[in-house]
Design a protein that fits this description.
Structural class: alpha/beta
Pfam families: ABC_tran (PF00005)
Strand order of the largest sheet: 6-7-8-3-9-10
Helix content: 25-40%
Distance between the termini: 32 Å
CATH class of one domain: Alpha Beta
CATH architecture of one domain: 3-Layer(aba) Sandwich
CATH superfamily of one domain: P-loop containing nucleotide triphosphate hydrolases
Order of helices and strands: EEEHEEHEHHHHEHEHEEHH
Mean pLDDT: 92
Keywords: Amino-acid transport, ATP-binding, Nucleotide-binding, Transport
GO molecular function: ATP binding; ATP hydrolysis activity; branched-chain amino acid transmembrane transporter activity
Family: Belongs to the ABC transporter superfamily.
Number of helices: 10
Protein name: ABC transporter ATP-binding protein
Length: 236
């Protein structure tokens, strides 16, 4: 689905990504873990078109998308759920969802709203409420639901569990697994490395803008270096 080769990117004179290679295959959940400042969000920004790379190439479904603007990347089937949710707080739940489906036909939008409500029943109950009145967990569900309205082939999520209570973190991860069953491929950036690796088919470890390790989710959980750096040294 997605192939990244030799990507270099940054902000002004600051180079963040250094010859980065990464792949997402059809039917996969792939997670990207690393310390704060490693460049994880920058990877997602480059893929989505929010940041143009200085070097390298990105292909999606065998078509070059390097440097495409965000609206064209979205139409190709790549959607980003940003860190911090960024819902439209003064609009209702339903209005947020409809905004997420702006590239779709009206009949498609209606069916997508129904599908989102089936995935997140609480949003059906809250559909007339303003976004700012929702709990943190409900806002995260709304952010994911809004992204799904565009019918993405690849859904990218940036720290979906950030700021959530543990019981809500578990629910969000269960929903991410459900999305894979619904034929949505996922690239996940997540601070909770243990939970991310448990649901991931494969993972990449990013340090100072470079991939230093990759493998199956289970292999990375079992790796002593990863356990010590990101999992608190425990194997459970």
């Amino acid at each position: 689905m997605l192939t990244i080769r030799g990507i270099e990117a940054g902000y002004g004179a600051i180079k963040v990504l250094k010859k980065l290679d990464l792949d997402v295959q059809k039917g996969e959940i792939v997670t990207l873990i690393g310390a704060n400042g490693a460049g994880k969000t920058t990877v997602l920004r480059v893929i989505s078109g929010l940041l143009a790379p200085g070097k390298g190439e990105i292909t999606f479904e065998n078509e070059r998308i390097t440097g495409l603007p965000p609206h064209k990347t979205l139409r190709r089937g790549i959607c980003l759920v940003p860190e911090g949710r960024e819902i439209l707080s003064d609009m209702t739940v339903l209005e947020n969802l409809l905004m997420g489906g702006f590239i779709r036909r009206r009949d498609e939008v209606n069916s997508s709203v129904k599908a989102v409500f089936e995935l997140f029943p609480i949003l059906r109950e809250r559909q007339t409420q303003l976004g700012k009145t929702l709990s943190g967990g409900e806002q995260q569900m709304l952010a994911i639901g809004r992204a799904l309205m565009s019918k993405p082939k690849l859904l990218m999520m940036d720290e979906p569990s950030l700021g959530l209570a543990p019981i809500l973190v578990n629910e969000v991860f269960l929903k991410i697994k459900e999305l894979r069953s619904a034929d949505v491929d996922i690239l996940l950036v997540e601070q909770n490395a243990r939970k991310a690796l448990k649901i991931a088919d494969r993972g990449y470890v990013l340090e100072t803008g470079q991939i230093v390790l990759s493998g199956s989710g289970q292999d990375l959980i079992s790796n002593e270096r990863i356990r010590a750096a990101y999992l608190g040294g425990k194997t459970g």
